[in-house]
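Page 42, continued from yesterday. The earlier attempt failed because a stray header line got pasted into the input along with the sequence. Redoing it now with the clean sequence only.
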Amino acid sequence: MSLELWLTFFIASLVISVSPGPGAINTLSSGLRYGVRNSLPAILGLQLGYGAQIVIVGIGLGALLATSTTMFNIIKWLGIAYLIWLGYKKWTQPPLTVDGTPQLDDGPWVRFWQAAFVNLTNPKATVFLVALFPQFLNTRADQAAQFVIMGSTLILVDVGVMLGYATLASQLARWMKSEHHQKIQNRIFGTLFVGAAAMLASFRSH
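This time it went through. Structure tokens are written below.
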């Protein structure tokens, strides 16, 4: 992959990560509640799910998901149900007891796997990657190496963007000290999760 082509892919990766989606919503919510450092498990979990999507596309299963209505719908509706559940959990989440430090009501592994499933059960990401990769793939060169470069770029860019989201959210946390504001915050993010589920429900692979 030439430097010019990689830079174009890098810009595309940046636009993809900055665009609002289930992963960004999850990171903003985690940053507000736990702070930047304690959001790292969630950010890494997102990358596990993202990496799995990249591998699926790389070995050709992405094309199957894009063309098989049954497989696409199974994964799509699992993702929708999971996002609705996260939205309900956020709506019913009690306010923090604010004492100057984040309160950890979910362990790091819980946050890690929750975030991993947010990306893992998002078939729209798979279909999008199926559409994206061929635009930058040189069929006359080593395809495996190209997939490694593109996949690594996507993940590294996403880590940077998610850290930015978590940092921004943690800075806003100082304005969210009252129980009333926290309830509003929880319900906003609960609604955003459900909204993301609705967007997935309206997405069609064809």
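Notes: The chain has one domain: 23-96+107-202.
Reminder to self: strip header lines before submitting.
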